[in-house]
Amino acid sequence: MKDILVTGFGPFGKFRDNPSDVLATLMPGVEGVVLSVTFGAGDRFTRNRFPRSIGAIVMLGVAERGRKLRLERRARNWVGGSPDVFEVTRGPGPISHRGQEYLEGTLFDGWEDTDLWALSDDAGSCLCNYLYYRVLERHPSARCGFVHLLPFSSRPLQQQLEWPKALIDEVRARL
């Protein structure tokens, strides 16, 4: 059985309890990694060589609004002007000056909307999209996808634990 690597982000802004941080470390049966909310941490992560035992990379972030998990199917070669937690910006502008406008994720091919999640083609223009684009660019053969979670103010921890677990079970079944 292939391993699943799950990333989350640490606290930032009004998200002192970042659902992606909590869920990346609490989900059973996966390897969880929490990245600081910095472009540098994203760059260091994408330079990793992932072991062959990793069958899928599921990156988690938090979206301010929504009613379901958002399964991001692609990343856009664009980063806005929002700073990371160290006040570093990488935009506004392209992430990669020689890169394609969009890079398609491979993890959610053939998936459909459910009561728990909705497919999305807009991973935003902040660090979530930046990380997703860089991973797709540097690891084109990796099975990876990005998931935007809801803030704990929208969905309590217990429900947040159930939804990603169902998602991970589905990822595992499709590997």
Show the helix and strand layout.
Elements: E1 3-9, H1 19-26, E2 31-35, H2 39-46, E3 54-62, E4 69-72, E5 74-76, E6 102-104, E7 117-120, H3 127-138, E8 144-149, H4 157-174
Parallel strand pairs: 1-2, 1-3, 3-8, 4-7
Antiparallel strand pairs: 4-8, 5-6
Helix pairs in contact: 2-3
Protein described:
This protein has 175 residues and is α/β, with parallel strands linked by helices. Helix content is 26%, strand content 23%. It has four helices and eight strands; from the N terminus they run βαβαβββββαβα. The strands form two sheets. It has a six-stranded mixed sheet with strand order 2-1-3-8-4-7, with helices on both faces. Strands 5-6 form a two-stranded antiparallel ribbon. Helix 2 (39-46) packs parallel to helix 3 (127-138). The relative contact order is 0.24.
Short characterization:
The chain has 175 residues and is of the alpha/beta class. The chain contains four helices and eight strands; from the N terminus they run βαβαβββββαβα. It is globular.
General form: globular
The run of helices and strands is: EHEHEEEEEHEH
Q: How big is the Rg?
A: 15 Å
**What is the assembly state of the chains in this entry?**
single chain
Features:
alpha/beta
